[in-house]
Fold this protein.
Amino acid sequence: MTQHPATGERIGGRYIVDEVAGEGGFAKAYRATDSRSGETVAIKVPNYAGSSNDAEIIDEYFQKEAQTLARIEAAGGHPNVMTLIDQGTDDGTDFLVVEFIDGYELDDAIERLGPLTDTEEVRQVGVDLSDAMGFLHETEIVYRDLKPDNVMLAERGGRPTPVLIDFNTATGFDAGRATDSGTTILGPYKPREVADAAGSDGRQGPWSDVYSIGKILLFLLRGTVPKQDGINPRDFGIDCDPYPADIVATATKSDADERYPNATVMKDVLAARDPSPPPKATLSTGRGGTTHTVYPGDTLGRRDAHGPSPAIAIEDDEEYISTVQVQFDRVDGEWLLRDRSTNGTYVQQGDGWEWVLSSDGRKRLREQGTNPADRHGDVPPETQPLTDGSLIALVHPSYGQTFQFEAQ
């Protein structure tokens, strides 16, 4: 394959190039046809000639996108996230095959149509984006680069539907490279902990993507986005209902602690048309100890200096605790703990401890030749209901990382 595939060129022995579909700083996309299925797909290749970045950087970020998309597919994918179809190397050049999104990049759509005057359409786009981001966060991925040209707006089900594309700057909670957390990503859609990562002590996490969702909603309503924090659209003369204006103002706060803590909460307030944060709970480490506030969707895990942090990050020099050990959810008004670790979590309600272990943790035990049911006689569940006074022990009750749960 040439570095600039021509119309009619066959890639990977299967995909026939039609035309250029778009390009960015790390990749160039071509519309193509799958000769086996006849379906239209998009081929992404490294954009060596059209980028000011060094070839090494382009290769690094192209591979990062490939790994992230593969991780997303392994987690089951999401309707508002671009689907990875295939990947490979053709004559020494890497390529990705992804679904072809029939629509416009968000900035092109607003330029053609103008700002959205229907508050309900804006709200639904926000719900979709928040749902997609919540899925990524559950998969321990922080997107970090949400902006109009990284969102395609497609007509699906009779309404404009956003689809996330371009995952070359997304990173895992355990990014594994100290330099990566210092990557500077510029633009008015970035909170300060991302835009000035190299010079900021702010932690990157799900709350960083919440800020960008808020700025996207402002863009939909206004057509432009100023490089300011805590923006209320109504202060700019935008005629919209109070609730989306207040949601945008909260989501774009400069201080991450004043924003909605994660995309699950952002989705909930948009779905409820109510900017008030949903019910919360507390985790405490004992009398006189530290108390943490917990919202639905929040995560608890080990602090990792090389990547984004869980909502509640604790020190664990032994590293038995996963970077995302557990996640807290509310289902039908009841709190739920979901284990996300490889070593498991214990929950005490009454006299005994209940072992909770993720599917990945059970898989790991089986790969080691151990039946997950051997430890306590039953295969451990992946989730456990929580009530006031529940004790949560990370890894094991004897490990010394125990919290008491109280709903508020």
User: Anything to note?
Assistant: The domain at 103-272 is CATH 1.10.510.10 (Transferase(Phosphotransferase); domain 1). The longest helix spans residues 55-74. The first strand starts at residue 10 and ends at 11. Confidence is low (pLDDT under 50) at residues 176-184.
